[in-house]
Write a structure and sequence with these properties.
This protein is α+β, with helices and mostly antiparallel strands. The protein is built from 14 helices and 29 strands. Helix 1 runs parallel beside helix 8 and helix 2 runs parallel beside helix 8. It is globular, with a radius of gyration of 24 Å.
């Protein structure tokens, strides 16, 4: 139900129990909660199930997602639940090579471009990190059954271990999955692409370790499209598409799972089938991700086929985009209209990811033999001519909407909207990835001391906005007395970024996307003024 008498009356004057309520304690809900709580916000997570789901769903995440997970506080635990995906190969039904990419162990975001992971271990790491934050509470076994937005706060009714309950906060984020109660309660519309395929997913633990070459394989066989991938340390996944005419019930039976696994030499004698289930892959997104004081993220906001590996990754991007904006609104450094950019920015990203996933699905799921032969011929010719990709960098669209540096015609000015890289840096004896050495938040990179570029008023504006200024120097730069604090760019990552943009300074948002660049002090002053005004304008909405 969408409301109840317990929560539809006038909002009470009692203080809210949290700054943000998060509904759902899956990976996206936990990452959202951690990113908020690490800003010293009070967060309550309400999860309907009393225990975490013990089986994996997603099996990989990209480099940007790894960076987000590190920002959530579990970067030092990645090796416990993940391993580099290493490579990805497509073959046809006869075994001919159609496509191959190698996965960089250190990609644009400073992490492997793809990490294979065991989801229950990831969720355990996130939950353990949550226990260390005093402002964050996870309440399992509390199902949200009623919701009311009173204009200044949101109140929810729950059914929990001790009976009915109520919780109140200024904001609520629904991360409660594909069948989201929150999305339905606020009547968010859905755009459905009508893309459906049934696949049997088999999660397996082999009795003896085995090396897989390639580590991740897609077999584009019109007789039975199928997949074999790493599912994190010690785990593997096989997936098989249901062919038209096959019974769904028979297709999902245990004996059929073992019959199909035998195609890969996997039998009850050498493996344990942890789980098997038939999933219907879908493609859809919510048309509005903010309705009043309620926002949605993850599968509550979008579903896509798994072929591009962007479902959970898109949810992590939702969390990263939303958390810093909610933090600013709650601290009073931006107004509520800033949250409208969450919908416009993330919806465009997700539309791209869904489109890419469906395009790959149409290629992989081809069951017509002639069309499959034509596909194979084109892909083989493309590979032999050296025109295909040889490395797997995430194919994520840059931001084009929202809070970006724009020209007089309201178009983003390059490199605004690009995903910023992460390189290794060193400062004052500390060395590592940028996020580890410098920390989160808005960052102004420059090759000149910012005091030489901006006047006193604009320096105060930067301080008021919480923008951290970082002066970059080459790796071999000699120390200069009285100039402590310069950041050595050990790999040339940031100096190269500035050079390619023709910029002296660059402002990067807390979610790692470039806000804008400036060629000189005059452009930088305008950039700072624009950012301040954009946030101020956001505060009036």
């Amino acid at each position: 139900m969408n409301d109840s008498s317990a929560v539809t009356g006038p909002a009470q004057d009692a203080p809210a129990e949290a700054d943000v309520l998060v509904v759902g304690a899956g990976p996206v809900g936990l990452v959202t909660a951690l990113l908020l709580a690490r800003q010293d916000l009070r967060v309550i997570v309400l999860e309907r199930w009393p225990q975490p789901y013990p089986m994996p769903r997603a099996v990989s995440f990209d480099g940007e997602s790894a960076r987000i997970l590190a920002a959530a506080g579990v970067g030092d635990l990645v090796d416990e639940f993940g391993e580099s995906s290493r490579d990805y190969t497509w073959r046809n039904g006869e075994g001919a090579l159609l496509f191959h990419v190698d996965v960089a162990d250190v990609g644009r975001s400073g992490w492997p471009d793809s990490t294979s992971m065991y989801q229950p271990a990831l969720e355990a790491a996130l939950a353990a990190r949550a226990e260390t934050l005093p402002g964050l509470r996870i309440l399992r076994g509390h199902e949200v059954v009623a919701l009311a937005d009173h204009g200044d706060r949101v109140r929810v009714g729950t059914v929990g271990p001790d009976g009915p309950g109520e919780f109140t906060a200024p904001w609520l984020v629904g991360c409660d999955g594909a069948n989201s109660f929150v999305r339905e309660a606020v009547h968010a519309g859905l755009k459905d692409y009508g893309f459906f395929n049934d696949w049997l997913t088999c999660d397996v633990v082999l009795h003896e370790p085995r090396e897989f070459h390639p580590n991740n394989l897609q077999v584009c066989d019109p007789l039975r499209p199928r997949t074999e991938v790493s599912a994190g340390p010690g785990h593997r996944r096989w997936e098989f598409m249901r062919i038209p005419g096959e019974s769904v019930d028979a297709f999902g039976r245990t004996e059929n799972a073992w019959k199909l696994l035998a195609l890969f030499g996997v039998t009850p004698g050498n493996a344990t089938l942890e789980r098997h289930a038939v999933y219907t892959f879908q493609a859809r997104y919510a048309t509005e991700w903010r309705i009043g004081r309620v926002l949605i993220a993850g599968d509550a906001a979008h579903l896509m086929p798994p072929f591009a590996g962007q479902g959970m990754c898109s949810g992590f991007r939702d969390a990263a985009n939303l958390a810093w904006k909610l933090g600013r609104v709650l601290r009073g450094t931006a107004g509520e209209a800033l949250l409208d950019t969450y919908t416009t920015e993330r919806r465009a990203h997700v539309q791209h990811a869904i489109g890419m996933s469906m395009d790959l699905g149409r290629i992989i799921c081809q069951t017509d033999p002639k069309a499959a032969r034509d596909r194979d011929a084109i892909m083989i010719a493309t590979r032999e001519r050296g025109l295909g990709r040889t490395s797997r960098e995430p194919a994520v669209q840059q931001l084009t909407e929202g809070l970006l540096h724009r020209d007089a015609e309201d178009r983003p000015i390059a490199p605004a909207g690009e995903l910023g890289p992460q390189g290794r840096v060193a400062r004052d004896g500390a060395k590592g990835r940028f996020d580890e050495v410098v920390g989160p938040g808005f960052t102004l990179f420059s090759t000149v001391r910012v005091e030489e570029l901006l006047d006193a008023d604009r320096l105060r504006t930067l301080a008021d906005l919480g923008v951290r200024a970082v002066r970059l120097v080459p790796a071999g730069h000699a120390d200069v007395p009285g100039e402590a604090g310069a950041l050595r760019d050990l790999d040339g990552t940031y100096l190269s970024q500035l050079a390619s943009a023709g910029a002296t300074a660059l402002v990067v948002r807390p979610d790692f996307y470039v806000y804008g660049a400036a060629a000189d002090s005059v452009e930088l002053a305008l950039l700072v003024d624009e950012l301040s005004a954009r946030l101020a304008v956001a505060g009036t909405g």
